[in-house]
Amino acid sequence: MSSTWKKRLAATVSRSKAGNNDTPSASITRAPNSLAFVEDNPFVDDDASEWDPIITEDVVVHFKYDVANPPQRPDQLDVPADTGPVGSGDSQWTRFICISDTHCNTFDLPQGDFLLHSGDLTHTGRARQVQGTMKWLKSQPHPHKIIIAGNHDLTLDRDFYLEHGSRWHRQQTEDVEEIKKFVEPQGDTTFHYLEYENMTITEGGATWKVYGSPVNGSDCPYLRL
């Protein structure tokens, strides 16, 4: 993924809880229930129509909004914004906060039921980079935090890194086993790192199936960085 973003590409995902048990779940990041924001993207005109909201009966997608004051959930539009965030138990909508390409940057995030990071946590997967990003993500208050590695997170792809890591870390390679410990829950039941895995999470009476697949490029080294 490109590292030329001024800050990051971030997204938030919301969908009605009603009737979602049969929702296809090939990838939660591709689900149509997204409420998203993009901040400081130098490649996008602030007035571009492609960032207009998408609204359907059970899906609302916002591509740009004030992170400090995100749009209300569809069934809470009459709740004054200054009353603070409303918990998921008061809403029939589940909100996903989706981010990617953060590349070691940390920033404020909207509240939500799920926090999903879909890749490029770091610049090149150095230990200090993974550790710092995991500390930031684990500190977030979201009830569920789902983390997936990207092509920049070299050391999280053990086999690829052991064979090709010296191409990027020429002076000193990293200990992949030690780095992998940073993405372990370590007793935190809200934290989930998925590597070619799926899981089922029930939140607020709704059940969500999540599959996480990192872009590793093991068979296609040209995908790296």
Automatic annotation (TrEMBL):
Entry protein name: Calcineurin-like phosphoesterase domain-containing protein
Where is the Calcineurin-like phosphoesterase domain positioned along the sequence? 95-169
SUPFAM superfamilies attached to this UniProt entry: Metallo-dependent phosphatases
Q: Where is this region: Disordered?
A: 1-28
A GO molecular function assigned to this protein is:
hydrolase activity
Q: Which InterPro entries match?
A: Calcineurin-like_PHP, Metallo-depent_PP-like, UPF0046_metallophosphoest
Q: Where is the composition biased (Polar residues)?
A: 13-28
What superkingdom does the record give? Eukaryota
